[in-house]
Amino acid sequence: MSSIFIAGLILLTAYFQAGIINDMRLLYLKPDLLFLINALFSLLFCYNIARVLIIGLFCGLAKDIFISGSVGLNCILFPVFSLLFSFVARKIEIENIFVKISVVAAGFLFYSLIIHGLMLTNGLSVSWGVFLRILAVGVIFSAAGSYILWEYIINPSIK
Predict the structure, then answer these.
(1) CA–CA gap between residue 56 and residue 36 (Å, rounded)
(2) Which of 36, 49, 50, 52 has the least CB density, counted as fewest CB within 10 Å?
(3) Does residue 68 contact residue 8 with C-beta atoms inside 8 Å?
(4) What are phi and psi of 26, to 5 degrees?
(5) Which residues contact 54 (CB under 8 A, 6 or more apart)?
């Protein structure tokens, strides 16, 4: 799989997440496609640490520039999660798609807890119902999105 294909997929995903997916919200939530691309490529290229870090940095930078509007937090968190996903993939043989989905969903839950915990420490108040809805529906979105991305985009391009 070429680096140009991966970079194009990340930019296309950032475009979709900032534009089209932003209008297709369900319960005022949308899937975090850049996190899913980062997680799935980290699971795929788990033995190439440099490639995993570059993909994580590029996904974090794309999310910060196109979606967040500020550069910093996702540029740090995405490579860290890339390393965590590749570490898990090297320790556990992940061949089953449902194990991959579970790993991605657990990573997204941890990522959401970090992001919303930082929001709370910065003085932004969110009610418990909204917070729990974000966690529950976000994990379901990440699980469904990772299955769709793996089965229909990443897996056919490997073969």
Answers:
(1) 11
(2) 50
(3) no
(4) -125, 120
(5) none
What would the two tokens of residue 12 be? 């296309």
pTM for the whole structure: 0.81
pLDDT in tens, 129-144: 777 877 788 788 778 8
- DSSP class of 59: H
Burial of 38 (0-12, 13-18, 19+ CB in 10 A): buried
Task: Tally Cβ neighbours within 10 Å of residue 146.
Answer: 28
Phi, psi of 61 (to 5 degrees): -65, -40
Contacts of 56 (CB under 8 A, 6+ apart): 38, 42, 78, 79, 80, 81, 82, 83
